[in-house]
Design brief:
It is a single chain. It is built from four helices and 18 strands. The protein is mainly beta. Strand 2 and strand 3 form a beta hairpin. The chain starts with a strand and ends with a strand. 37% of the residues are buried.
């Protein structure tokens, strides 16, 4: 899917529209927490992809390991809460990623179609802008309290660039890409400071998209997002977010030889 938007050189309003258009494929993970005053808490993110004609739920492996420690885990897909059960995840422990085929899972839960990012049918007429959208559901902003009928489900996204110089970051992710993230430099679409952004706990497993664009007239651009990787680590002291590269994910989906969790 691509979207046509008016474009002004001094405006980044188009970012908000991209988030609206593509945010629907990002999936929050919720679980009950007996130590918390709220009924249900967000603890991770995932997203939907399409590869070789099939749909997959992609996330970080450590999110799935966390999910296995909870009695009940609920996903939210297209605004519908769905219990995470009877899914088998293929895993890549070297890159902290996991992916589960979900076509049957969606059908069992009455979902006939979903928005998903294409992994093997990418558009080539769009050119990379150099900017990325990192998206997910921070745990501090995602809480449910069924007793009081309160729902706090908020997608968070921020623009980032790949680190121009590789910082000295200690990571075990074998095939990774580094993004600059300085909370003090975060601004909104009006170039105003967003204040203190949420802690990035809970965004693990979300997507890192590169924004691509194509000019169609003097005042209009078409935008398209292409997956760069899966968010897996945040090194706060180094101001760096780490994603496992898309190539690691496609290799996992092609092989289907890793251990399955279910």
């Amino acid at each position: 899917m691509d979207i046509l938007l008016p474009f002004e050189e001094d405006s980044v309003d188009f970012i908000d529209e991209l988030v609206k258009s593509w945010g629907g494929l990002v999936v929050p993970f919720f679980s009950s927490n007996p130590k918390s005053k709220t009924k249900v808490n967000g603890f991770g993110s995932g997203f939907l992809v399409r590869f070789s004609g099939s749909h997959y739920l992609v996330t970080a492996l450590h999110v799935i390991n966390d999910a296995l420690s909870h009695d009940t885990v609920v996903l939210n897909i297209k605004g519908k809460g769905i219990v995470l059960e009877n899914l088998k995840f293929f895993i890549d422990s070297d890159n902290d990623i996991a992916a589960a085929p979900i076509d049957e899972f969606l059908m069992r839960n009455g979902i006939n179609s979903v928005q998903a990012v294409e992994l093997d049918n990418e558009k080539t007429s769009f050119k990379p802008s150099g900017f990325h959208l990192l998206m997910g559901y921070p745990g501090s902003k995602n809480k449910l309290d069924t007793k009081w009928d309160k729902v706090d489900r908020k997608l968070y996204s921020f623009t980032a660039k790949i680190c121009s110089a590789a910082p000295n970051v200690n990571t075990e992710i074998s095939d990774h890409v580094l993004f600059d993230f300085d909370p003090k430099d975060q601004v909104d679409s009006n170039f105003k400071s967003v204040g203190k952004p949420p802690h990035l706990y809970g965004m693990s497993g979300g997507p890192a998209f590169e924004i691509h664009q194509k000019r169609v007239s003097e005042g209009e651009l078409k935008f398209y997002v292409r997956l760069t990787g899966v968010l897996v680590e945040w090194h706060q002291n180094k101001k760096v977010v780490i994603a496992a590269k898309k190539e690691a994910l496609t290799n996992l989906l092609q092989s289907n030889k890793s251990v399955a969790y279910g």
